[in-house]
Amino acid sequence: MVLDSGDTAFILVATAMVMLMTPGVGLFYGGLVRKKDVVSMIGLSFLALALVSIQWVLVGYSLSFGTDIAGFIGGLDFLGLRGVGMDAGDGTIPGLLFMAFQLVFAGITLAIITSAVAERVRIGSFIVFGLLWTTLVYDPLAHWAWGGGWASQLGALDFAGGTVVHISSGFGALALALVIGKRIGFGDQDMEPHNIPMTMLGAALLWFGWFGFNAGSALAANGLAANAFVVTNTSAAAGALAWLFASWVKGKPSALGMVSGGIAGLVAITPAAGFVDTMSAIVIGAVAGVLCYMALLFRVGKGLDESLDAWAVHGMGGLWGAIATGIFAIEAVGGYSGLLQGNVDQFIAQVIGAVAAVVYAFVVTYALAKIVDATMGLRVTEDEEYVGLDISQHGEKAYA
Amino acid sequence: MKVEAIIRPERLDQVKKALEEKGFVGMTVGEVTGRGEQKGIKLQFRGRTMNVDLLPKIRIELIVKDDRVDELIETISASARTGRPGDGRIFVIPVARSVRVRTGEEVM
After folding, report:
1. Close Cβ partners of B32 (under 8 Å, ≥ 6 residues apart)
2. Fewer CB in a 10 Å sphere around the end CB: N or C, chain B?
3. Which residues of chain B have a CB within 8 Å of the CB of A386?
4. Which residues of B fall within a CB distance of 8 Å from A395?
5. CATH 1.10.3430.10, domain A5-394, yes or no
6. CA atoms of A392 and A387, how far apart (whole Å)
7. pLDDT (tens digit, 9 = 90+) per residue, A109-125?
8. How many Å lie between the alpha carbon of A400 and the closest alpha carbon of chain B?
9. Global ipTM
């Protein structure tokens, strides 16, 4: 096809916006940990972006978007970006740009999972785990949904990564947390967030970047991108208000809860952004805000140290979003109808796609974490954890 | 007497609770860093030893009547103890005068 300069300009900007979300995750998480671990926490997000950036251009892109092998994984045709060029190819933007746009999605996904290992992971082990995880969990899931794999053949819809990004990292984080174990003193020591404004700054970067994430997933500067933009903001707002009010019922209206609810709304609308209208986005976001808050309370009640709630917000929010896409999709927006328009098949396809991703992400992450733990050890020593990862892993301090 | 205790930050909640149960309410708490006889914590890093010498601690100060000093020391020790190096120290210091700012009266 012919290269479109408007589309190309828009996706270039959208790609840069999504890139900024990864340090955004770092700041969001960094504010939630104790001050002895904040350099480590933000550093892990940058590390995730850097690792995936190299892995993606070497093999990741090819495994995700190469010629389909048995519906499961892409072939090695694009190894080292061979044949990925400046021409438009099948779309209206350069192949290289499509590759870069997909790269930043893979990067943030690995950053999200660092929630599970906060304040206790060995940096060397995380590098090995991260490379294995993005190659063996993210790349297949991206191929299933977007690269011509079985889920897309089945008709399961994932506009911008509810399954690929959020279910994978959220349920992956749950498995990883079970393997690495609780932080020392979890449950009886005070582990309050050390800097809520830092978390709110991270949330601001995420909310901003999400416009590139969802609207950019239209892969064109068109009406569908505008729809994705508007439903994204609407769902985020509904999620923020819902969590705020839910926390108000139990006590004070929490500012941290409000921004967490915003993220929950953003996560839930991600798979649906190109298929639902704005009124549905209010419902999707509001349900996500309450659901993810309840998931967080459930997690805390179980005494499970999935420390920064990637599972509750991204895992459960992504699962809800994938199913909600099957409920609220309307023909007029993206050309697909969901349960509300009487299309049961779409709903079933969504459930199958989501549940398969939950099971795959959980099981494979658990296995990878066990392997890395047995060979290298995922955790730092007790003394290193006590002193904090900033000093023990980096030899640096956040605050003088 | 003034009782000044240097304790682990993560024990502060337990110490505060224990003090309250015994009726020791007024206190001043500050974040400090320090080291003891072990000179901090030694970390093994690529075969080298790295020493983290100034560790975060909490300093609690309370003013009490002489006859309650032993009970106070006992309460802090029991609630702050983990049994490992770094549990901290307690100092007892005489107080010459004590004046309430609001009224200017001498209180002890």
Report:
1. B6, B56, B57, B58, B59
2. C
3. 41
4. 50
5. yes
6. 7
7. 999 999 999 999 999 99
8. 12
9. 0.78
